[in-house]
Design brief:
Number of helices: 3
Shape: elongated
Strand content: under 5%
Distance between the termini: 35 Å
Structural class: mainly alpha
């Protein structure tokens, strides 16, 4: 699958958000409900 430069830039912009990265890290451990994520990440 070939990505265009714009798609790569968009992805990097998305991953630069610390809250999104924390959510991704939490979800990489196991599936979680939204309320569980909010409590765990204090958001």
């Amino acid at each position: 699958m070939t990505k265009t430069l714009d798609e790569i830039i968009d992805l990097c912009g998305t991953l630069s958000n610390k809250h999104r990265l924390r959510i991704i890290a939490a979800l990489s451990e196991k599936r979680k409900y939204t309320s569980e994520l909010a409590r765990e990440l204090e958001i």
